[in-house]
Design a protein that fits this description.
Length: 388
C-alpha cells in the first residue's frame, strides 16, 4: 500500500502525536508499505531528517486551549493537488483532522481512502468550551470526506462521537517495548529513594500538587528526592513554590532528551504524573511501566483508563495532599505491593506494543480498501449501462 500520514503538529519537536506518527510510519515500512508523513513546514526544518516527509506550505505555531501547540498552515491548494497527483496514495491517515487547515484541504481533494484518528481529550474549562464552539463548524465540514473514524481512547472519542453517528474504532497509542526495558536488577533496599516527573510544566499537569504532597512525605521520609524534568510557563511559579515550601531535595532539570529521560526512568524508584485534566491517554505512564517503574498518576479519565484493575492503586486525587503523600509512601516502600504492581504492568503492556497497534491500523486500511473496491463499478457494468 501507498500510505500518507498527515500530522498537523511540528514534526521537529517532541510530542505524543508526532512520536506516534513517526513510529507508525516505521512499523508500516517494516511490513513493506510505502509510507510518507505529510506535515506543514516548520521554521526549524534544519533540525529535521526530511526522509519520507512531504512538507506542504508554511505554518505558524498556535497554543490552543486544548493544551496542544498546533500549526495553522497557509492555504497551498496547488501544492496539495500536485502532491496528490504525484504520490497516488491508497490510504491517507489524518491525525487530529480538526486542526486547521491542511487536513481539510487534503481531504477535499483526496481520492484515497481517508482514515481519521482523534487524540485529544476535551477539558471542561470555560476557554476550552468556547474554543470547541468555534472549531466545531469547521470540524463538521471535514466529516463528509472521512471513510473511517478512530480514536486513541474512549475519552478521546467523545468529541467526534458528539458530531457523527458513524462508528469510532478505538486503537490505542503504542510504545516501543524494544526501546523501553526494565533494568535487569533493582535495589529495593537502597537508602535514598527518588521520585521522577517528566512533562510540560503547566497548570493542568498538577505539579504544584506533587510539591505539596512531597512536602508532607519528606516530613516523615527525609531521604527521598524529587526530580522534575521539563519546561513550560509554570516553571518559575513551581520553583518559587518549592522554595516557599522549603524543599531542598527537589531538582528542576529543564528540558531533557529522550536518552536522558530513559536514564532517569531506569534509575528512579517511583514515577509520578499528577495531571488533573486534559489527558486522553498516558504514553508517559506506559513508558514508566515498561521500565518497571512503579507509578502514581492523577485521576483524570485518560490515565484511569490505563491504570485499571490492580493498577487503580496508582490513581490519586492530586488535590488531596495528605492522601497523595500516603500513596507516594506506600508505593515507594511496600516491597510486596511493588512486586505485584510490576507483574500487573508487565501483563498490561503487550496490548500497547507498536507491532500490535499498527497491525490494527493495517487491518483497518485493508478493510477500507476492500469496501472501496466493491463500491466501484467494473468496466463491464459501465459498458453494459451505456449499451456498448
Amino acid at each position: 500500500m501507498k500510505i500518507g500520514l498527515v500530522c498537523p503538529y511540528n514534526i521537529v519537536r517532541s510530542g505524543g502525536v508526532q512520536e506516534q506518527v513517526k513510529a507508525i510510519r516505521t512499523e508500516l515500512q517494516k511490513h513493506g508499505h510505502r509510507v510518507k508523513i505529510i506535515t506543514p513546514e516548520p521554521r526549524d526544518i534544519s533540525e529535521c531528517d526530511p526522509t519520507d516527509i512531504l512538507f506542504i506550505g508554511n505554518a505558524t505555531d498556535f497554543r490552543s486551549p486544548l493544551h496542544t501547540t498546533v500549526q495553522v498552515s497557509a492555504s497551498m491548494n496547488e501544492s496539495i493537488q500536485r502532491m496528490l497527483e504525484e504520490e497516488k496514495f491508497d490510504v491517507l491517515h489524518f491525525h487530529e483532522p480538526w486542526v486547521p487547515v491542511l487536513s481539510r484541504q487534503i481531504l477535499s481533494r483526496s481520492n484515497a481512502v481517508n482514515i481519521a484518528t482523534f487524540h485529544a481529550a476535551l477539558p471542561s474549562t470555560r476557554m476550552s468550551r468556547t474554543f470547541i464552539k468555534v472549531v466545531t463548524p469547521y470540524t463538521r465540514s471535514t466529516l463528509k470526506y472521512i471513510d473511517y473514524f478512530t480514536a486513541v481512547s474512549e475519552v478521546a472519542s467523545e468529541y467526534i462521537c458528539s458530531l457523527t453517528d458513524e462508528p469510532v474504532t478505538i486503537i490505542p497509542n503504542g510504545i516501543d517495548l524494544g526501546r523501553f526495558k526494565a533494568p535487569q536488577k533493582y535495589d529495593e533496599d537502597k537508602e535514598k529513594k527518588t521520585i521522577f516527573y517528566v512533562g510540560r510544566l503547566e497548570n493542568r499537569k498538577g505539579v504544584k500538587h506533587l510539591l505539596r504532597a512531597f512536602r508532607l512525605l519528606t516530613d516523615q521520609e527525609p531521604n527521598v528526592s524529587l526530580i522534575i524534568a521539563g519546561d513550560g510557563p509554570y516553571r518559575y511559579k513551581l520553583e518559587m513554590l518549592a522554595e516557599t515550601l522549603d524543599l531542598h531535595n527537589v531538582t528542576f532539570t529543564g528540558y531533557i532528551s529522550d536518552e536522558e529521560k530513559i536514564k532517569y526512568l531506569q534509575t528512579s524508584d517511583l514515577f509520578c504524573s499528577p495531571a488533573v485534566y486534559g489527558e486522553s491517554f498516558g504514553i508517559v505512564l506506559l513508558e514508566a511501566m515498561a521500565m518497571g517503574l512503579v507509578t502514581v498518576a492523577g485521576n483524570n479519565p485518560g490515565y484511569s483508563a490505563i491504570m485499571n484493575g490492580l493498577g487503580s492503586v496508582s490513581i490519586i486525587d492530586p488535590k488531596d495532599s495528605a492522601e497523595f503523600a500516603r500513596r507516594l509512601d506506600l508505593l515507594l516502600h511496600e516491597k510486596q505491593l511493588r512486586k505485584i504492581w510490576r507483574s500487573w504492568a508487565s501483563e498490561q503492556l503487550e496490548q500497547y506494543n507498536f507491532p500490535r497497534v499498527v497491525a490494527q491500523y493495517e487491518e483497518l486500511y485493508e478493510d477500507a480498501l476492500r469496501k472501496r473496491s466493491r463500491k466501484q463499478p467494473s468496466l463491464g457494468s459501465v459498458l453494459s449501462e451505456t449499451g456498448q
